[in-house]
Design goal:
By secondary structure, the protein is an alpha+beta fold. Pfam families: Peptidase_M23. It comes from Acidithiobacillus ferridurans. GO terms for molecular function: metalloendopeptidase activity.
Length: 470
């Protein structure tokens, strides 16, 4: 259920504060019941969400450590890649030099092959001439030594050229083999670097996606926590408004009682004045009647003896008008408003019988806000009784608290009974000590079955163990 917006909360507050001065408990009950739908499910398990958030933040920290290690590996791989690229540049330069060398060798080999071809062609044209044949056929024996030296030089040059040509061909083959080796090595390095880059890129994408998902979940948890804290503030506002409304009703009741007392006093005074006037009129009538009787007796006394006159005088003395006593009506005093001990006085009984499993101000097991009340361990269905007499300000569902009952037991002291399975009172009802206000519910934020009990003084949570004995 979405939170109440600020305009709606303000409208609700204005609606409550604008109650007529003479509105009674029924009007307060009607207005609170009309706002119950807006106040349902205001509070949830804030501790569990904060624990979930802490776990997510821990996972995010671990993920960031892994990302940092991966970034270090990326840096190392990039350095290695830079070295490989430098090797590639060097190898490419060497390949360029080898290709130039092969080109020069090929040109030299072509030149050598041309020289050798011409020599072979000249030898072929000479035919199978041997040095002995040349000596026998020459007409100039003096030229024999010179021809012999020429042929020997020619043979040596031919042999050297053949050897050099073979060496050049072998060097070309060796250089080509080295070029192939370098090309293969460069291809392997390029493939290795490409594979490393692809792997690192995939790992980085996976980690980035995980971090984004975790960041989104953490943001959602933080939003939920802010929403729950706002819900708790709404509950505090509800308690404050109910307290103000209760005090306003008390002031109205006291004003009504004072006005009624003044009205009764005025009525009593008027009754006393009427009684006095009636008494005066009755006395005047009796006095007139007595005067008439005295006149008759005087006429009779003239005919009687002295003794009769004495008797008549004695009779006249006894016939004085009786004194009428008017008593004012007894006015019963106005019934006094029920009073209860304020903070720091009294020794209230506990609402249920059972051990206290969570104390005021203790941190919740799942994290989050500290306990603002105490919890009693009790089976489902256990009767929950009022710790002191007072007036019910609220009875109904409240998100995060199940069914809840709020009782004003003093001018500044509230008792709150939460996580009820059912309520047995209604708003505006006067309850006495020990009156059943509901029964213990199950589950909820408490973990085990039990009653959540909270007391507030002037809207602030106070330790219930300071006011009840357990």
């Amino acid at each position: 259920m979405p939170l109440l917006s600020r305009p709606r909360v303000g409208a609700l507050l204005a609606l409550i504060l604008l109650l007529p001065a003479g509105a009674g408990a029924a009007t307060l009950q009607e207005k609170i019941q009309n706002s119950q739908k807006k106040l349902e499910h205001i509070h949830e398990n804030l501790g569990q969400i904060q624990a979930h958030l802490a776990a997510g933040q821990k996972t995010q920290a671990q993920l960031r450590v892994e990302i940092s290690a991966l970034d270090q590996r990326v840096v190392a791989t990039q350095k290695k890649l830079a070295g490989i690229q430098q090797q590639q540049h060097s190898a490419q330069a060497q390949l360029a030099e080898l290709r130039v060398k092969i080109h020069a060798l090929q040109a030299e080999l072509s030149q050598q092959k041309g020289i050798l071809a011409r020599q072979l062609r000249g030898a072929y044209m000479l035919g199978g001439v041997t040095p002995l044949a040349v000596w026998l056929q020459t007409e100039r024996p003096g030229e024999l030594g010179r021809m012999s030296v020429f042929y020997e030089s020619l043979a040596r040059a031919r042999s050297a050229l053949i050897v050099k040509t073979q060496g050049t061909a072998q060097q070309i083959r060796k250089t080509r083999h080295e070029v192939q080796i370098h090309e293969t090595h460069l291809a392997q390095l390029a493939q290795q670097v490409s594979a490393q880059e692809q792997t690192l890129r995939q790992q980085r994408e996976v980690h980035a996606a995980l971090e984004n998902q975790l960041a989104a979940r953490i943001a959602a948890d933080k939003t939920k926590i802010a929403e729950l804290q706002a819900n708790a503030n709404i509950l505090n506002g509800l308690v404050s408004r109910l307290t103000v409304q209760f005090r306003h009703q008390e002031e109205v009741a006291r004003a009504k009682a004072a006005a009624e007392a003044r009205r009764k006093a005025a009525a009593a005074a008027a009754a006393r004045r009427a009684a006095a006037i009636s008494a005066q009129r009755a006395a005047a009538a009796q006095h007139h009647l007595a005067q008439e009787r005295q006149a008759e007796q005087r006429a009779l006394r003239a005919q009687e003896t002295e003794r009769a006159r004495q008797v008549q005088r004695a009779a006249n003395a006894q016939k004085q008008p009786p004194t009428t006593v008017v008593r004012p009506p007894v006015i019963a005093p106005a019934p006094a408003l029920p009073t209860t001990p304020i903070v720091g006085h009294g020794n209230y009984p506990p609402p249920v019988t059972g051990p206290v499993t969570a104390r005021f101000g203790a941190p919740r097991v799942t994290g989050g806000l500290d306990w603002q009340g105490i919890t009693f361990q009790a089976p489902v269905g256990t009767k929950v009784r009022a710790i002191a007499p007072g007036m019910v300000l609220y009875a109904g569902p409240l998100r995060g608290y199940g069914q809840i009952v709020i009782v004003q037991i003093a001018h500044s002291l509230l008792s709150i009974y939460g996580h009820l399975g059912a309520t047995d009172v209604h708003v505006g009802e006067q309850v006495s000590t020990g009156r059943q206000v509901g029964s213990v519910g199950s589950g909820g934020e408490l973990g085990n079955d039990g009653l959540y009990f909270e007391m507030r003084n002037a809207g602030r949570p106070v330790n219930p163990l300071d006011y009840i004995h357990n």
